[in-house]
Amino acid sequence: MATKIRLQRFGRKGYAFYHIVIADSRAPRDGKFIERIGSYNPNTNPATIDLKFDRALYWLQVGAQPTDTTRTILSREGVCLKKHLLEGVKKGAFDEATANAKFDAWLEARNLSLQKEKDKEREQKKATTKARLEAEKEVNEAKQEALRKKKSDIAAVAAAAAAEAAAEEKAQQQEEAQQEEEEAQQQEEEVAEEETAATPDLAETPAE
């Protein structure tokens, strides 16, 4: 029976994740499988891989053929390298201790590279968040400035209206005072004329 190491799709549209399975090459892609050896989630950065390393290595050693994507996953996790090193031990190219030392050195370098990717992603997220907060702050400040200007304009209009009303009231009061003064003066003149008319002319009065 020809066996394949392949992905079995799960998840919703636009957010798929996969199980890494051992299956008969004749079985449907998402059908029956022999063994599940891990999972693969490409929606994270970097992609999240959970793999049963020893089982994956076993199936490679017994001839299971990985698909292109699963071969990339197995290479990233070091399964293909481990298989290659063990074959070198069998051929006498180097001993098992040397093989393990080479694999450990590769694993350390791989982990360091992954950590750098995670750190870079974290810094990018921080920078993006900082930029977004600064942009929001600028927008809020612009809104507050516009609100302050609007309030200032409203206050200026109200002050101008109040000043105009006060000026009109003062002018009206002055006009009324002047009118009252003129009326009083006219009344005084009329009284004076009446008094003059009522007083006899002494020069024309005959002597006794």
Secondary structure: elements and pairs:
Layout: E1 3-12, E2 15-24, E3 35-41, E4 48-51, H1 53-61, E5 65-66, H2 68-76, H3 79-91, H4 96-198
Parallel strand pairs: 1-5
Antiparallel strand pairs: 1-2, 2-3, 3-4
Helix pairs in contact: 1-3, 3-4
Describe this entry's structure for a reader.
- By secondary structure, the protein is α+β, with helices and mostly antiparallel strands.
- Helix content is 64%, strand content 16%.
- It contains four helices and five strands; from the N terminus they run ββββαβααα.
- Helix 1 crosses helix 3 and helix 3 runs antiparallel to helix 4.
Gross morphology: rod-shaped
In what range is the share of β-strand residues? Answer: 15-25%
Strand order of the largest sheet: 4-3-2-1-5
Secondary structure: helix percent = 55-70%
Radius of gyration: 51 Å
- CATH first level of the domain at 3-77: Alpha Beta
Low-confidence stretches: none
Task: Say what the CATH topology of the domain at 3-77 is.
Answer: S16 Ribosomal Protein, Chain: A
Structural class: alpha+beta
> Which H/E pattern describes the elements?
EEEEHEHHH
CATH architecture descriptor name of the domain at 3-77: 2-Layer Sandwich
What is the count of helical runs? Answer: 4
Counted beta strands: 5
CATH superfamily heading of the domain at 3-77: Ribosomal protein S16
- C-alpha termini separation: 172 Å
On the 0 to 100 scale, the average pLDDT is 89
Largest sheet: 5 strands, mixed
